Amino acid sequence: MMPGNQTQFTEFILLGFSEKPDEQGPLFGLFLGIYLVTVVGNLLIMLAIGSDSRLHTPMYFFLSNLSFVDICVVSTTVPKMLVSILTQTKAIPYANCLAQMYFFLCFAGLDNFLLTAMAYDRFVAICHPLRYTAIMSPRLCGQLVLFCWIISFLNSLIHSLMVTRLSFCTDHEIQHFFCDLTEVLKLSCSDTLINYAYIYIVTGLLAILPLTGILYSYIQICSSILKIPSAQGKYKAFSTCGSHLSVVSIFYGTVFGVYLSSSDTHFSWKKTVASAMYAVVTPMLNPFIYTLRNKDIKEALRRGISRSASAQ
Description:
Blueprint: E1 11-14, H1 21-51, H2 58-87, E2 91-93, H3 94-127, H4 132-135, H5 138-164, E3 173-174, H6 181-186, H7 193-226, H8 231-259, H9 268-293, H10 295-311
Parallel strand pairs: 1-3
Antiparallel strand pairs: 1-2
């Protein structure tokens, strides 16, 4: 569905980070490197978990899904940006912009929900260790992931359909490197009250509630860890959730940095950079966080490399 009565409207212009020609080469190299590291790092985690039966547990099941979603997040935005830099073409067709918006909202939402499911898994493992196997059954883990996918797809679909009812005027320039929902809404000459109302409602239900669940889980986890008599036991218990806590802190810290910042146009460039932190940099950091702090993943990778070397 094309927008309203704007028959000549066919595309948006993504301004990106910089329009200076001498900065395009370094930007291309930087984001190409980040993209390759993100894809390879997350693929290695998925391969390590899939190939090692000792890692077929709920915690690593959620982690493999998170790695897959991280690849999808960067693949939604970065390749288009790289092509734009390489070809010096900043235009993106209206339909492609909607598609990019849809998939980014979907995968970013999945990141949020999977981090919540992982927090619940750590809560059960530390606070109810004797019942862990019974509670975190393969069926429940599959249902949690399926629920995350369904809610994310439906939410992003509603957002995208609500954008199709809008008309866009003469200003088609998006001060961003991808079709961010709020930036697209700023360009509309239609009434966007319903769109913003839905954004605020969804933010309350699908962002604040999961974050509250994560915070509650870690309050209970910390309380349980403090009751462990030995220092070694405390360290072992905390080490099982340290990586997840690091990822949660980076993800929510950068997200809130974007959406709680001023909406004034003078802050557009800063918002673009902050968006790159959670949309591009955070998915790249996740493999390093989990491999550097997780002995099981490192050992699985070593065994996989050894098998590959011996096979040759």
